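Attaching the record inline, Q. Sequence:
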Amino acid sequence: MARPLRRRPWDLPERSVTPASLVFDRRSALGGLALLGGSLVVGSAAALPRNPRYSVDDRPITEERLAARYNNFFEFGSHKQIWKAAEALTTRPWTIRIEGLVEKELTLDLDALLAKVSLEERVYRLRCVEAWSMVIPWTGFPMAELVALARPLGSAKYVEMKSFFDPKVAPNQRAFWFPWPYTEGLTIEEATNELAFLATGAYGKPLPRSMGAPLRLAVPWKYGFKSIKSIVSFRFTEQRPRTFWEEVAGDEYGFWANVHPNVPHPRWSQEMEQPLGESEKIPTRIFNGYGEWVAHLYPDPSDPVYFR
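Structure, as predicted:
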């Protein structure tokens, strides 16, 4: 006899869905982002082309209300329903710092940066290290375009990224024993891989704050904690960055964090995953199903070191 389905944390009642409050138009989509009368007017990502090379044909896209309201954003709390707290984050104005081993360090307003890149939509799987998963239509641009803009020196081997730091609006940042701000890193080869994507929107809309507005990383072959949210800086360096979760719990959350079903987390198996909104678990795939794009980045893609 089938067991009755238990209510899951992401099963939100329809009445709790927040109505859209932003105004979209095609012209602003193509032109980037603008502030008008104190209100954010952002181009509708629905007007941007969806790149068919990056699609997910074997799974449905996760409902927007689940993706926006069930996620990790440790700055705002250790639970999943951080979306209300995240609304306190001011996302305009927003500046991006490009520094370190580059020809010329830069500080750019985000809107100025977006005017220099090619925006598109891609559908990616997202696999959390906690064994739940989503499928999300992101909008943004290839990280390789930012690397090209930065013009790193030949000695640069890594890109270190940092999130915002504002304890007045992010309650968890008042916990001084954590190594704030949130820091992540990629090798130059990972950062310039065609899958590495800097997202500014999702579901045909600007990114909600809970998902990392106004700029976040999406690296779909890695566990979700590698996809740093609300980025403010990119530093090119010769030394491998020490990331936030390496500092906090390096035995559980390592630098590489590539998805592998047969390399368990110290406290649970990674063989199966639970898609949000679905009743059945599904098998996890090595590199989250993106091996053909990324396996060559690792000298021995079967070595467990690359999956921790």
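Residues 1-44 have pLDDT under 50 and may be disordered. The first helix runs from residue 26 to 31.

More tomorrow.
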